[in-house]
Design goal:
Layout: H1 2-61, E1 64-65, E2 74-75, E3 81-93, H2 101-111, H3 117-124, E4 130-133, H4 138-145, E5 152-161, H5 169-172, H6 184-188, H7 190-195, E6 200-201, H8 206-223, E7 227-234, E8 240-246, E9 271-272, H9 278-287, E10 296-297, E11 303-306, E12 309-312, E13 322-323, H10 324-329, H11 333-343, H12 345-354, H13 378-385, E14 391-392, H14 394-405, H15 433-446, E15 461-471, E16 474-487, E17 494-501, E18 510-512, E19 519-521, H16 532-550
Parallel strand pairs: 1-5, 2-6
Antiparallel strand pairs: 2-3, 3-4, 3-5, 7-8, 7-17, 9-14, 10-13, 11-12, 15-16, 16-17, 18-19
Helix pairs in contact: 8-16, 9-11, 9-12, 11-13
Length: 551
């Protein structure tokens, strides 16, 4: 019994040991299999990584860069980006390196299903390098890297982007494919921008630029004018807060800037501007102590002969007796001629040269017009006195009015923000001339031809100008309507020039009285007083609070 019992115990232990051994053996085998799979997995991963690396390297080894220079950013006066450089990639193919064209076409069709592969196949059969796509999106860039084609070249490029698209088109300008500025600030400051170390800060204010551009575009809907320009400038330091020309273009889409429709009307446009010149005539008379605001011209004619032409009053109902300030308030042509004759040809020419009307302005961008030259004769003196037969640019007009209103000091219009430290100002006019003119400018708005710009609280002053457009050497019925305003007239800080080219009468536009209730429909006359002045009033109404709080 004992032997059998002992045998059972031994057998039992043996069975337990066998079971334990089998379990351990199974675990060992499982661990071996797991280890083998892990090794295989690691090898696969490493191989795949190697393939991807070699594929990308194949493309990278055949890539090249055309513009390694990063241009500096351009910002507005508040630091908001106007122009910025970013890296993009262009995809091209060298047909001479293609081994299997059919295989490559299949790969490309999978990656670029939207392309014209009939055209691509034609180019593949040629010998010249060609682009498939420029400015690749990141997803496509990664897909191309995995193709592993020696014929594919990835061209890294620095691309200029303009977040505001149209807003600063004429000011900022464009660059070409070689990263070279071809217009605007991009051209004028090409060397500095290529240096890339410091951003270029402009004097422009994005908020003000947006408002003025919007109203100029709105003017085209109302008066059907073919174009327009707006300049807002600080009259004491020449900083331009807004410079707009319409129509404009999207800087992110390359445009043919040689198209006459895209001319920068604010700086390059050369125009006869009409009665806005009467302010210069009166200013010259005051500066040379030849007239005073209260001097009265008695029994003024309604018409004068000038060569083979006749000079007449636009408003035949003007009184025969007009004071100097009345001549400006009610825009008398004949009165201005009389003042011009008192001043004389030599002195009037000298004065216009002093305030920068006749020559070409030295400015921050190359797109700057040059006033047309002419010979001074007796008849020319008469016409120039009231703004006929003399041309200038809107930016020069803004400079001239700034000098008239700022105490008589010379200023240089600028788009570049600078540190201004007690710069000694050059005096152009006698001390008291500006104060006399500002009082008259204010009356032009409250009593004269610019009442639609009388925005409450901003003491707007200025002068209107309506002129005929010259085409092929002849005057047409088309009009250039301009309003040069300064405000506040008691202590002028800003000049706003609004020019509308080839305006039309509007039958449907509703004019609202500014200082009393009520409104009226339809534009009665195609003059600055009913077009440019109206747009200026709307602009000042919107920018006035910004200027008052921000500056």
């Amino acid at each position: 019994m004992n032997r059998n019992k002992n045998n059972k115990i031994i057998i039992s232990k043996l069975n337990l040991n066998l079971k334990d051994f089998s379990h351990k053996e199974f675990n060992i085998n499982l661990n071996r299999v797991t280890f083998i799979f892990l090794v295989i997995f690691i090898i696969v991963i490493l191989y795949s990584t190697r393939v991807i690396y070699l594929s990308s390297k194949t493309i990278q080894n055949h890539s090249y860069k055309t513009n390694k220079i990063s241009r500096a950013d351009i910002t507005d006066r508040d630091g908001d980006f106007i122009s910025k450089s970013v890296f993009t990639s262009n995809l091209g193919i060298d047909p001479k390196l293609v081994k299997d064209k059919k295989k490559l076409l299949l790969k490309l069709k999978y990656t670029f299903p939207d392309k014209d592969f009939i055209e691509i196949e034609k180019k593949l059969n040629g010998k010249k390098f060609f682009y498939i796509e420029k400015k690749l999106i990141p997803e496509r860039y990664q897909q191309v890297k995995l193709l592993g084609e020696k014929s594919i070249r990835m061209e890294k490029k620095i691309t200029r982007i303009y977040p505001d698209k149209h807003l600063f088109a004429h000011v900022v300008g464009q660059i070409d494919d070689d990263n070279v500025g071809i217009s605007g600030i991009e051209k004028s400051f090409d060397k500095k921008l290529k240096d890339g170390r410091d951003k270029l800060i402009l004097t422009l204010d994005k908020e003000l630029q947006f408002i003025i551009r919007s109203e100029l575009l709105n003017s085209q809907k109302i008066f059907k004018n073919v174009g327009g320009a707006g300049i807002l400038m600080n009259i004491n330091n020449g900083e331009i807060l807004s410079l707009v020309s319409v129509p404009d273009f999207n800087l992110n889409s390359r445009e043919d800037i040689s198209n006459i429709n895209y001319i920068n009307r604010a700086t390059k446009g050369v125009y006869e501007l009409g009665s806005v010149f009467k302010s210069f005539t009166i200013a010259a008379g005051l500066n040379y102590d030849l007239i005073s605001p209260n001097d009265i011209f008695l029994n003024l004619e309604k018409k004068l002969k000038c060569g083979g032409r006749t000079i007449s009053e636009y408003d035949e109902n003007l009184p025969k007796d007009l004071s100097v300030e009345d001549i400006l308030i009610y825009s008398s042509n004949i009165g201005s001629v009389k003042i011009g004759q008192i001043i004389g040809q030599e002195k009037l020419k000298e004065f216009l040269e002093k305030i920068g009307i006749l020559g070409q302005l030295n400015f921050d961008i190359k797109e700057i017009g040059k006033p047309l030259s002419f010979k001074w004769r007796e008849c020319k003196l008469k016409t120039v006195s009231y703004g006929h037969g003399i041309t200038t640019t809107p930016i020069q007009l803004a400079k001239g009015y700034a000098i008239l209103a700022n105490g008589g000091f010379d200023i240089n219009p600028t788009l570049i923000k600078k540190k201004i430290n007690n710069i000694k100002k050059k005096r152009i006019l006698k001390k008291d001339v500006s104060s006399k003119l500002n009082k008259i400018f204010r009356k032009v708005v409250t009593q004269g031809t610019a009442t639609l710009s009388d925005v409450e609280g901003y003491e707007v002053g200025g002068k209107t100008g309506t002129a005929q457009i010259v085409e092929n050497g002849n005057y047409t019925k088309k009009k250039i309507n301009t309003f040069a305003s300064v405000f506040p007239s008691s202590d002028p800080k800003y000049v706003l020039v609004i020019l509308l080219e080839d305006t039309k009468l509007s039958k449907d536009y509703v004019y609202k009285y500014r200082n009393k209730p009520g409104s009226y429909k339809g534009t009665p006359f195609n003059t600055a007083g009913w077009t440019s002045v109206e747009i200026s009033g709307k602009i000042i109404d919107k920018i006035g609070p910004i200027l008052a709080t921000k500056y």
